[in-house]
Write a structure and sequence with these properties.
- The structure is a single chain.
- The protein has helices at 27-39, 72-82, 136-143, 192-204, 210-218, and strands spanning 2-10, 46-47, 56-66, 87-95, 105-116, 128-130, 148-151, 164-175, 178-185, 235-242, 251-254, 262-265.
- Helix content is 19%, strand content 31%.
- By secondary structure, it is α+β, with helices and mostly antiparallel strands.
- The chain contains 5 helices and 12 strands.
């Protein structure tokens, strides 16, 4: 048995999220269908996280197993030929059998894109349009409250799992008219990133205070507060970090004129996937 690791980029606009669903188009469903056609047997994939409907991914990490004697280069090319135009495989490599995209992850980074002002029609579906005045200095101050280990029940949808998570960084990058909100954490609860970003925008608009956010962190509750869950189309899964491997080897994030930086080949040279690359 062999375990393959993919780095996948996709536009989430037309998909009902990552997870396979009956009678709905999902990223997992389309990817598994292509892999099954290539390998000649049913394939089940595992992702680093299940992105919601409309959420985009710049560097989703996916794995699957097969006994087929296929090499990475051939698999990469076959996937590029079969996948739709709104999905792209950036890397294919072989990983140890105990590698798991979600369980092995050390941290994940999401970015949320805000357009200040009336959004151009060409960017709809990729940014959140915000026409109100925002105190971005206050937003940056509020962002610091979330860094550290907290119970994020107040900033997530109800779940039977523990709502305690560690946030390593939360940054606000001003590139007017774009503002990029970036968060790195050990893991994310359902809607956690979008609710944190939503409350920070409310803070900047004067609708909540720093004391309100501190209260929500001190007294966590799924039901006691009205939270702003920002729409999914401004959210991007950027990267997933691992202790023992780098899925993005040979790639770098570069500003190519899109809303957010994207993964490209280093030095502008294409690096072909290797037949065997221990993760």
């Amino acid at each position: 048995m062999r375990n393959f690791l993919l780095v996948l980029e996709y536009d989430g606009t037309r998909y009902a999220g990552w997870q396979r669903q009956k009678d709905r188009i999902t990223v997992q469903g389309v990817l598994e269908s292509s892999l099954s056609s290539i390998l000649g047997h049913p394939v089940t994939t595992v992702a680093s996280g299940r992105t919601d409907a409309g959420v985009h991914a710049l560097g989703q990490v996916v794995s699957f197993t097969t006994e087929k004697p296929v090499d990475c280069k051939m698999l990469h090319r076959a996937l590029q030929a079969l996948l739709p135009d709104d999905m792209r495989v950036l890397r294919v490599q072989e990983a140890p059998l105990d590698f798991h995209p979600r369980k092995s992850a050390k941290s994940k980074r999401y970015v949320y894109a805000v357009f200040c002002g009336t959004c151009p029609v060409f960017l709809r579906g990729y940014v959140y349009s915000l026409r109100q005045e925002v105190d971005w200095t206050l937003v940056q101050e509020g962002a610091r409250l979330f860094v550290g280990r907290h119970d994020f029940a107040s900033f997530s949808s109800p779940s039977p799992c523990s709502s305690v998570r560690t946030v390593y960084a939360l940054d606000v990058k001003l590139r007017f008219p774009l503002v990029l909100l970036s968060i790195v954490a050990e893991g994310f609860l359902h809607h956690m990133a979008r609710m944190i970003f939503g409350e920070l925008l409310l803070l900047g608009m004067g609708r909540v205070s720093l004391a309100d956010l501190e209260h929500m962190l001190t007294y966590p509750s799924h039901h006691a507060y009205r939270r702003l869950n920002l729409p999914p189309w401004g959210l991007y899964l950027v990267e997933v970090q691992y202790e023992r491997c780098n899925p993005y080897q040979g790639l770098e994030l570069e500003d190519v004129g899109f809303v957010v930086p994207v993964w490209v080949e280093k030095n502008g040279q294409k690096l072909l996937p290797r037949g065997f690359c221990p993760c």
